[in-house]
């Protein structure tokens, strides 16, 4: 992955994980560190949980000194550099007025994105017309907010045309592509958008037909994000009220198995493209 695709949010998460490992290896609690450095309560936890938007290099140096990581230790420069990378601003900062979640920040730094969509077409593959209809259907009425959200979604899609794009594999329930919206031309354009990915080596689409019957994806959509540099993966679940991030190995394994099961039930990529073309042809 090139440096332009390194997400400060992913760097911040990695920094927190490494700092927690060092603290635990020194058999210190967060309270021990707080007392030793005379920090405010909660600061150590915020750093380790990547809740500090701009971690300070001076704080990282203080922690490394406390954890007896000397300047000639390779980890010293690595973590100081990681801190500087974590302080950078991502393109999504321009959309903070409509962003209330960190998913876009994690997505921007992923090396592999794979998941299942139960009811909607994935945001990375939506046309502006589909995105607009979807956002309005979610009871967003303010025209300015709708426009900003559509702009954000289109900006996210630049990820797939990056010189070093992530591998994107999505399984879409047939109900999502069959659901009408807008006019016939809008629907045809959205289907064509999906069909056109057939020529993209790093994009893989499978359609899960309705006649597949009940399946484990009926519990809801999910996305698994894998990151470079051995950064730990995470599972993203979006609900009506909030977003949930799962990081435990058992949870990652469970959703990995669900994805494999859904992939085996779904149409092959070639058959999925044929299905989409047939669906587009039925629009008249």
TrEMBL record:
InterPro entries found in the cross-reference section: DUF5753
DUF5753 domain ranges (all copies): 102-277
Pfam family for this entry, one: DUF5753
Full protein name: XRE family transcriptional regulator
Organism: Actinomadura harenae
Taxonomic classification: Bacteria, Bacillati, Actinomycetota, Actinomycetes, Streptosporangiales
